[in-house]
Amino acid sequence: MKIFLTGVTGLLGRHVAQLCSEEGHEVIALIRDKKVLHSKFRHELNICYGDLLDINSIPENLNGAEIVIHCAADTSMWVRRNQKQEQINVRGLQNLIEAAKKVNIKKFIHVSSANTIGFGDSNNPANESIKLTTSSSRLSYINTKIIGEEILLNEFKKNNFPVVILNPTFMLGPQDYKVGSGKLILAAMKKQILVYPAGGKNIVDVRDVAQAILNSIRSGKTGNNYLICNENLTYKEIFTIIGSYTNVSVPQHRLTYFMGIVIGNLGSLIEYIIGKPSTINSKCIKLAFENHYYTSEKAKIDLGFTTRPVKETIHDTINWFNNEYVQHQAG
User: Fold this and answer.
1) At a CB cut-off of 8 Å and minimum separation 6, what does 237 contact?
2) Do 105 and 159 meet the contact criterion of CB atoms below 8 Å apart?
3) What are phi and psi of 238, to 5 degrees?
4) pLDDT at 325
5) Contact at 8 Å (CB) between 278 and 219?
6) What is the rounded average pLDDT for all residues in the chain?
7) 222 C-beta neighbours (distance < 10 Å), count
8) Contact yes or no for 267/288 (Cβ under 8 A)
9) pTM above the 0.85 mark?
């Protein structure tokens, strides 16, 4: 089967491409940067260079693909309105939809975010029925993902567009060359985290998300969302697991909400001064005091979704940073 894939240079896209190749599919990867060569990947790829913001650069027939998997996104959590992010996550998606409609593809797998779904707590984790219409934190990233889902589901209702939307939670795993979500692990490994916030999040292995994407090609129901998640953990539990695989002491003191707001506002000020996102800002810190807990029961039933223990995920991520990432940085 021919699969047209975006976002192949990112953490999830790399694993999706590798899994597709291992299962015998032909991967056609849309890449914007012409400096990225085949040698950057461990598996067979057909690279076509193009930009989602330039509809004329997207292959008119998607190079014969039957399936589109859209992993590409700007995931920065900038506190201010991010117009570049809006262009990539919304207009780029619209251009890809138009290209896909011309060739009558079998399925369009869109990778969104669990943040488009209202979060639950440890007793009542959220499911797909709690859809948000706007981000409570007013983060541009979340709002663009909400808009993107609305566009896709409207296409499904009006034109029977064969979309399946996956909503992964916080992904960790090997091959995080751009260091996205892995910043949490690296910060803990470098002893940069001295306190922990009161909230928690759901962690899922990127390799399990990649498998869920392939499963959704076979059994995902069009017009549906699927939460792709694993274990709900407090930040203290997360740092305790990280500490068990490193020589780093686990933070013993909980960050107060007041101090969290002070630190977050300072981070936002730095963003405004330097003109780009910082690691922490006022909106992200508020999220850290919430419990973003979810359940993947629907995906387990429809997609046959399975997960490995979070301890294994964190262990493998730390091991990758200590070995392959170090070699990669050395050049």
Assistant:
1) 200
2) no
3) -65, -45
4) 87
5) no
6) 91
7) 15
8) no
9) yes
> What is the number of residues in the chain?
331
* First-to-last C-alpha distance (Å) of the chain: 35
Element of type H or E holding 312: helix 310-320
Structure tokens at 123: 């007793």
Q: Distance between CA 157 and CA 163 in Å, rounded?
A: 10
The answer on pLDDT for 80 being more than 70 is no
Longest CA pairwise span in the chain (Å): 57
Amino acid present at 186:
L
Domain residue limits, the chain: 2-178+202-232+293-308
In sequence order, the β-bridge partners of residue 92 are none
Q: Collapse the DSSP code of 18 into the 3-class scheme (helix H, G, I; strand E, B; otherwise coil) and give the result.
A: helix
CB-based burial, 35-59: b 16+ in 10 Å, e otherwise:
eeeeeebeeebebeebbbeebeebe
What phi and psi values does residue 157 have, to the nearest 5 degrees? -70, -40
Residue 321's pLDDT is what?
Answer: 95
Provide DSSP, 210-266: HHHHHHHHHHPPTTEEEEE--EEEEHHHHHHHHHHTSSPPPP-EEPPHHHHHHHHHH
Q: Is the dihedral of CA 8, 14, 20, 24 positive or negative?
A: positive
Residues 6+ apart with CB under 8 A from 328: 177
CA distance 221 to 90: 23
CATH no. of 2-178+202-232+293-308? 3.40.50.720
Backbone angle region of 227, left / alpha / beta, with phi > 0 → left and psi within -120 to 50 → alpha: beta
Pick the closest to residue 9 from 64, 23, 1, 32 (CA basis). Answer: 32
Distance of alpha carbon 125 from alpha carbon 3, whole angstroms: 33
What pLDDT was estimated at residue 37? 61
| DSSP code per residue over 114-166 | GGGB--B-SSS-B-TT-B-SS-TT--HHHHHHHHHHHHHHHHHHHH---EEEE
Among 63, 59, 131, 127, CA closest to 95: 59
Q: Give the Cα separation of 23 and 8 in Å (integer).
A: 17
